[in-house]
Amino acid sequence: MTVPIQPAAPGPWLYTPSADDDDDGGRCANDAGAVEYEKLVRRQLELLGEDAEREGLLRTPLRVTNSMAFLTQGYRMRVEDVVGEGIFQEDHQNMVMVRDIELYSLCEHHMLPFFGKAHIAYIPNGKIVGLSKLPRIVDMFARRFQVQERLTSEIAHAIKGILNPLGVGVVIEAYHLCMMMRGVQKQNSYAITSAMLGEFHSDEKTRAEFMQLIRNPRAL
Ligand SMILES: [Zn+2]
User: Fold this and answer.
1) Would you say residue 187 has pLDDT above 90?
2) 140 CA to middle of ligand 1, Å?
């Protein structure tokens, strides 16, 4: 099984926090890199003209370090681990779709968030994946520095890699804070990207059905 994965970032400094880690909590023991990162954040505050020693900012370097460790934990994950035992043999050959998967990532150009929704569909070819695994795959790739285009295609290729389905479609709609808070400052502009593999690429009807399902009002 080959799954094209962005190589994990080098660097010993970031740990993978557990889900219930308090952002304001203590740092991981014996993590020299985290200490280094805190210093960097403190220096950043100073260079921006702040008094890093004032009360409100005292624990900010620690919080930022913990928060960045969380937001980039995708570098330290592999698709195989995220999916685990969640793959099943199944003859179903119709489209499987999960839509409106919440997504939060960081743009690699500005280190600012972009966020929105991912819609994923695939046509099985003997194997299906537990539905809850799809949002986990999204998170794994979103918790890295990204561009929306690459994020979209990495998710699609990861699903292709684990299921070898007849086709995969991924659409992401996202707002980019780097566009909204700075730059063009357009509050309502969002970007749509898609990656279509297999039948989603070759068969117009499959692709149209997928796009239609994304647009349909919620049935429930
Ligand atoms: Zn950006």
Assistant:
1) no
2) 19
Give the chain's domain count: 2
Alpha carbon distance 155, 149 (integer Å): 10
Task: Tell whether 54 is covered by a domain.
Answer: yes
Task: Answer yes or no: is 185 within a domain.
Answer: yes
Structure tokens at 145: 């520095």
pTM: 0.87
Ligand 1 (single-atom ion) residues, CB below 5 Å: 107, 109-110, 178
The confidence band for 14, taking pLDDT boundaries of 50, 70 and 90, is low
In this structure, are 108 and 67 located in the same domain? no
**Token pair of 62 as six digits:** 């620690």
Do 110 and 35 belong together in one domain?
Answer: no
Alpha carbon distance 144, 217 (integer Å): 31
* Residue 200 · residue 169 · CB < 8 Å: yes
Buried b (16+ CB within 10 A) or exposed e, 144-162: bbbebebbbbbbbbbbbbb
- 71, 95, 118: which is the final residue of a domain? 71
Distance from the alpha carbon of residue 148 to the mean position of ligand 1, in angstroms: 10
Ligand 1 center–CA 112 separation, angstroms: 6
Neighbours of 178 (CB within 10 A): 16
Catalytic residue IDs: 107-110, 148, 176, 178
